[in-house]
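Working notes for the structural subgroup meeting. M.R. asked for a predicted model of this chain before we commit to crystallization trials. I am recording the input and output together here so anyone reviewing the notebook later can reproduce the run.

Input as submitted:
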Amino acid sequence: MNESKVEVTGFEARYYDTLLNILSLGTYSIFIRKAISKMNIQPGDRILDLGCGTGRNSCLMAKYLSSDGSIVGMDIGEEMIAQFEKKCSKHPNIEVQKLRIDEPLPFNKEFDKTLLSFVFHGFPDDKKEKIIANVKKSLKPGGQLFILDYNEFELADRSIIFQKLFTKGECPLAIDYINVDWKKRLEEWGFGNFEEHLFYRKIVRLLKAELLKK
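Returned structure, recorded in token form:
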């Protein structure tokens, strides 16, 4: 049974980036560039992009890399993978693989950074733990996990319009997600040295978590 609530297909997949631009009133491109600029990507970094979608993020991250750096994207949607390959075709150091991020991945201490962009909130708790296990196994000691997703906030404190849009437009798991202290949870999973950057009136957050060396 497929329990992920963030897998995109059909019309939404074909026009995913365009829809994001429209829903954000044209601000998404500026936002995502700014968020990625906060990742402090180094020229030789090897980056794992989990739930990479259309490749927009990977292409933006690639601009910070030299020929020594590389990116591996993971997705299972055929339409998303096709867009990724088209978007990132000019970058020889980027590849995409069709693999589920909530099942064991074939990497062992190979990556400096891992990105989860608007995908983590859409998995149930047991799948989240499997994703984090993949991250820990894939990262080098001291490597960094970046979660670009919803911040923690009280939905009742937001406007009625926002509450309706959020509850109708997002999966039910997102409502649970915004009520979790993710720094505390990540500490329990072996991460620390957190940094965060907030966007869209503190609704969205880029959270950096470093895999602590044992």
